[in-house]
Amino acid sequence: MFTPTTSYRYTLQPYDGPRSRTTCPSCDKPRCFSRYLDSNTGEVLPPEFGRCDHVLSCGYHRNPYHGGADGQSYAQQVHHATKQGYPVGPHRAPSPSRPLTKPSPIVSIPEEVFTATLGHYEHNVLACVLCRHFGQGVADELLSRFRLGTSTHWPGACVFWLLDEQGRIRGGQVVLYDETGHTVKEPRRCTTWAHTALSLRCKSQGRPKPAWLADYEKHSRKSPCLFGLPQLVTTPAEQPVALVESAKTAMVATSYLPEFVWLATMGLNFLTPDRLEPLRGRRIVLFPDAGALAKWQAKAKELRRSGFDVRISDALEKLVTDEERRSGLDLADVLLRESLGYPPSWDE
Predict the structure, then answer these.
(1) Contact yes or no for 292/265 (Cβ under 8 A)
(2) Largest CB tally within 10 Å, which of 183, 243, 264, 307?
(3) What residues of the chain score a pLDDT lower than 70?
(4) DSSP, residue by residue, 54-101
(5) pLDDT on residue 342
(6) The predicted structure's pLDDT at residue 253
(7) Is the distance from CB of 195 to CB of 109 less than 8 angstroms?
């Protein structure tokens, strides 16, 4: 009889010689693919579930806890199929009405598009706000750490580039801030996505989209990963991660609370087990915007059920007024307003 050795039902098959590794379904290289096991039964999952050892050249990883094309993960499908009496085995789809599909290929933004935006910070309103508040030295460190870009889509706009844990440029959000560091909302809210801005530029110039952009629009999600993930490469595993909603907040909070690695979800709807997979095994603290505590608490319960070490901070709720709570004040707003300016030592 098989005895589970882990608190998670689905785990990667431990290494037990070359025979415990199979051919990767993405790069087709032999003996490099770790399959997922059902720790309740000892059976391997369908062959598309696993992780390729060639992290940089291939990077294929399909986790049974990740959402599929219909938003449900394999684990959720198995749970529902079991409740409905469908047979579930290692080579069967959990339900005849919910076939498992191979994930879409990962399409990233070309390196040259990304690097062309780095710098030009004298024309970047957010970069200027950070410089005025923190001083040039700290501002430069933040701009470099988070790979902030400068966009010409709106004069003064910035680009929050979304790089995954392997350094691939998976997306970017273009935002225009005013001189106080708040998003411009009149006459309309000035936020868009980098690929949308590039597509509009091609249209305005009367030229066709490059092949990569057409492919990207067909296959990629707008916000495919957390903001700030490359920091995990250079930080110790025991350093806790702080999650906020806004990319700007992650940048601002880094200087005030450096004991955390600050990342941003880019939206409450993106606080999901799928999105947080690179953080598995780390301690995570959630810092919701004012007024969003209850929603984040519900999200935290879902994350704990998926095996994440998550707690939630209610510090902001204790600091804000009812009016500020209704307006959705975030941590960066409080940190910036409470500060008396940067210490002179930051200029040294």
Answers:
(1) no
(2) 243
(3) 1-7, 55-56, 67-72, 80-105, 339-348
(4) -TTTT--EE-TTSB-TTS-BHHHHHHHHHHHT----TTS-S-TTS---
(5) 54
(6) 96
(7) yes
Q: What is the pLDDT of residue 279?
A: 93
Closest CA to 226 of 250, 208, 205: 250
The predicted pLDDT at position 1 comes to: 35
Give the whole-angstrom CA distance, residue 195 versus residue 214: 9
**Torsion angles phi and psi, residue 309, rounded to 5:** -90, 95
CB atoms within 10 A of CB 119: 14
Cα–Cα distance measured from residue 44 to residue 23, given in angstroms and rounded to the nearest whole number:
14
Given a contact cutoff of 8 angstroms between Cβ atoms, the answer to whether 7 and 40 are in contact is no
Residue-level pLDDT at 216: 92
Q: How far apart are the first and last CA of the chain?
A: 66
Contact 282, 303 (CB under 8 A): no
Question: Cα(316)–Cα(291) distance, rounded to whole angstroms?
Answer: 9
pTM exceeding the 0.85 threshold for the entire prediction: no
Cβ atoms of residues 292 and 300 within 8 Å? no
CA–CA distance, 171 with 158 (Å, rounded to integer): 13
Q: Which residues contact 346 (CB under 8 A, 6 or more apart)?
A: 134, 135, 137, 138
Give the DSSP per-residue string, 274-339: TTTGGGTTSEEEE-PPTT-HHHHHHHHHHHHHTT-EEEE--HHHHHS-HHHHHHT--HHHHHHHH-
243, 265 in Cβ contact below 8 A?
yes
Contacts of 60 (CB under 8 A, 6+ apart): 24, 25, 26, 27, 33, 50, 51, 52
From the DSSP assignment, how many helices (H) and strands (E) are in the chain?
11, 12
Starting at the edge strand found earlier in the chain, the sheet holding 157-163 runs 149-151, 157-163, 169-175, 191-193
- Cis peptide bond prior to 187, omega within 30° of 0: yes
pLDDT value of position 214: 93
